[in-house]
């Protein structure tokens, strides 16, 4: 079934808040994540909660979409992040309660990170210095919702794709180290390719 995002989820904007070095929650910013939207750093809580910010605490399974700037990605809120609040860089996507058992947040993350979706969203961004994708644009994106079984298969295959890409990059790094070591040994006369 094809739906618009606004039919299956509630989208809210992240909040602007002052933050410091110590706090009881983490004020999430896009630079805490890599290009793929994976949590990259061990961040210490940097936000003191008050009545205003407490209302914006994220739930496990919420989806963050980095809507401002050139680095656009979707990611899922997990327990390992602890108590956290999204900065104004993000749009927060929360699946409607009545659809929680029909739509997996990981599937939506895959969809928003798909090159075709990102390309479309980037084409709708406004602003030149800091391009921004609006809540309205995101709400009106159409998405085909397959069965739960198909969603699970897509998630597994995408996870394997990411793992394969990661391993390929690690192999390339090791190969580069080996080649550089070989060249250094040749330079120092410790190795002779002709066996002399």
The largest pleated sheet is described as: 4 strands, antiparallel
Number of helices: 6
User: Could you say which overall geometry the principal axes of the C-alpha atoms support?
Assistant: globular
Rounded radius of gyration (Å): 21 Å
Strand content: 15-25%
Low-confidence stretches: none
Q: Provide the structure class.
A: alpha+beta
Gap between N and C termini = 70 Å
Helix content: 25-40%
The average pLDDT is 90
* Biggest sheet: strand arrangement: 2-7-4-5
Total beta-strand segments: 8
Order of helices and strands: EHEEHEEEEHHHEH
Defining traits:
globular; single chain; 196 residues; 8 strands; two-stranded antiparallel ribbon
Brief overview:
The protein has 196 residues and is of the alpha+beta class. It has helices at residues 5-8, 51-54, 105-113, 115-123, 135-139, 148-187; strands spanning 2-4, 9-13, 26-28, 63-66, 74-76, 84-86, 90-95, 142-144.
Task: Walk me through the structure.
The chain is an alpha+beta fold and 196 residues long. The protein contains six helices and eight strands. It has a four-stranded antiparallel beta sheet with strand order 2-7-4-5. 19% of the residues are buried. It has helices at residues 5-8, 51-54, 105-113, 115-123, 135-139, 148-187; strands spanning 2-4, 9-13, 26-28, 63-66, 74-76, 84-86, 90-95, 142-144. The protein is globular.
